[in-house]
Amino acid sequence: MHSSSSLSEASRPFLTWQRILDWAQEHYRHRTFSKDERIPTRSGLLYLVQRGAIRLVGTAQISAKTGNSASKLLQQIPDDAFLGFIGAGQPFEIVAQLPYTLSAYSHVDQTAVIWMYWQDLDNWPHFRWEVLNAFRYQHQRKLLWLSTLGQRRTIDRLLGFLRLLIEEFGEPCQEGYRLPFPLTHAQIGSAIGSTRVTVTRLMGKLRQRGLIRTQGDNLIYMPAELIESNDGSAN
Q1: In 10 A of CB 4, how many CB atoms?
Q2: CATH class of 150-235
Q3: How far is 207 from 211, CA to CA, in rounded Å?
Q4: Domain map of the chain by residue range?
Q5: 198-218 pLDDT tens trace
Q6: How confident is the model at residue 153 (pLDDT cuts 50, 70, 90)?
Q7: b/e string for 50-88 if b means 16 or more Cβ within 10 A?
Q8: Which of 8, 121, 130, 188 is 20 to 30 A off residue 91, Cα-Cα?
Q9: Neighbours of 167 (CB within 10 A)
């Protein structure tokens, strides 16, 4: 809702976006994905979400001892963490850096993605500036995310995390603002360094205090005054 990115379809001239879409379809650089389908990605390519939403997931390989003998073996177990959404009109890039890997998944059905090489942006110089500006905005949001994750109390991390998501992607509704994408308690827990059980318990506390509402398919609402005042607290 408060996204300042100039990549939103409302701010970009329709003709520019249509030219990019036509180019992508002509060069077979456009594809539509089902819900939770993994997006095939590789380093060095630029991706644009034309419709829907992308869920970014980071995976770190952690070591665990197995077996009961004195010579226990170390087994690499993947540890996934939800890293955020990329909404319609936004760019993203996947950078591989061992031992961490980044993956992208279609978070909602009929999510459409365009991909290109960075040099392809030479066809649209103004659009290149928009893409760079959008990445700059995403970087600023990640700094806020890191600040939120630095909160000592889990309930503060939870409330701050939900506020950041709804500030960026929320839609106005009767209850205030609504996150348009479903989000499971397990995904929230992985994002804030907690467990699904703890998130479920703390979500109940936030509902009792009137700081959030939930409805239907894991949709989350926040009162308008909490988002617009920018000084909400779980205290």
Answers
A1: 12
A2: mainly alpha
A3: 6
A4: 1-66+74-139, 150-235
A5: 999 999 999 999 999 988 767
A6: very high
A7: bebbbbbbbeeeeeeeeeeeeeeeeeeeeeebbbbbbbb
A8: 188
A9: 18
CATH architecture of 1-66+74-139: Sandwich (2.60)
Q: What tokens appear for 17 in the block?
A: 């976006």
Better-scored residue on pLDDT, 175 or 25: 25
How much is the pTM?
Answer: 0.80
Rounded Cα–Cα distance for residues 49 and 169 (Å) = 14
Two structure tokens written together for 226: 């909490």
| Euclidean distance between CA atoms 51 and 127, whole angstroms | 18
Give 129-142 pLDDT, tens digit per residue.
999 999 999 999 99
Specify whether the CB–CB gap between 171 and 177 falls below 8 A: yes
Distance CA 137, CA 133 (A): 6
